[in-house]
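Q: My labmate handed me this sequence with no annotations at all. I'd like to see what the chain might look like in three dimensions before we decide whether it's worth expressing. Could you predict it?
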Amino acid sequence: MKLSQFGLKFAGSAGIVNLMDDLGNALNENPEMIFMGGGNPGRIPKVEAIFKERLEAVLQDPDQLHSLMGIYQSPQGDKGFLTQIAGLLNKQFGWNVSERNVAVSNGSQPAFFILNNMLAGQMPDGGYRSIHLPLAPEYIGYTGIGLSEPFYTATRPDIELLDDHLFKYHVDFSKLKVNRSTAALCVSRPTNPTGNVLTDDEVEHLDEIAMSVDIPLIIDGAYGLPFPGIIFNQAKPHWNENTILVLSLSKLGLPGVRTGIVVANEEFISAFANANTVVSLACGNFGPIIARELFKTGEILSLSKSLISPFYKYRAQLAVDLCKNALRGIPYRIHKPEGAIFLWLWFQGLPISSQELYERLKQRGVLVVPGHNFFPGMNDDWKHQQECIRVSYAQDGETVQKGINIIAEEVKRAFLQ
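A: Here is what I predict for the chain of 417 residues:
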């Protein structure tokens, strides 16, 4: 069977494909596999109880049950859900949005496929535009998402070395360049994979740059603000008419419901809804039905603040302490964990590639993600890309400790070989 250019591109190998294959297949190969690579959220019993209560209420109401399974929603999403989201954003942050500023997708990954290809690629005038990442490393799922290449460009970050084996990436505004071929600026906040949280000043500066050249600022808030709020420092949610904010229910503990949320100006939301109809016909009903009441009451914010963020903050500090103990004697640094559910480990001068380290760890029963997958739009000549791995700390402490100890053993072996 001959594949089209589209078929060859999207049927091929990619970092996100390999990651999801590993998540799906690893247990068949090794039932004791330690999963420290994927983005599955941790289990928080009190949060699960809230979702269980909402689901039971839906099952007991024939009208809600019919809405859950028996009808298509509008291309933009369930109007009641959109209204609740807009109402919450207005009440809490004064954003002056209505349901016409909000759309639902079947997860944030499909949302990014649609909105990025709406903005970048081949243009009607014959030109070509790309999405610029002001700070790399960035989310593995961006790689390969464009219908044409090169789809992304990126700016190498400024690295601040901190005490106690920590470091932090910053946007290097002295090197950040936008031009007529730049379609949008795109950042994740907190950054997946590093847990970096762009400062409010950095976000404001990026917003000013984007507005000055009439391009949007895209913020991937899958782990961030205003929900699920997995941020451990002070940061403000950001949105205006020039911002496209993409949110998700996944990291609340609902990755299986595949619900993404896009907040943007009315013109863009209308166009996005049309494109989403072509791609998906309609969005799933499960996530909006389960979450609608949480938005209506504002509980979505309180559970993020009181349950979800503290859970991951504790897990993050535990993982950092375990790394510092296990990695003694190794040239390593940990990106300062400011949010998300990962540690980003940098082994300075690592004599093997991040892919080879990944393969060795997989043989030992530990799944991580090799760092070179997280630099879309950047040339391969920066050795730093081969010295890092992403490690999830969402599992229980005993499992994380066991995994970190094995990582330390393999890294030490690599340096001694």
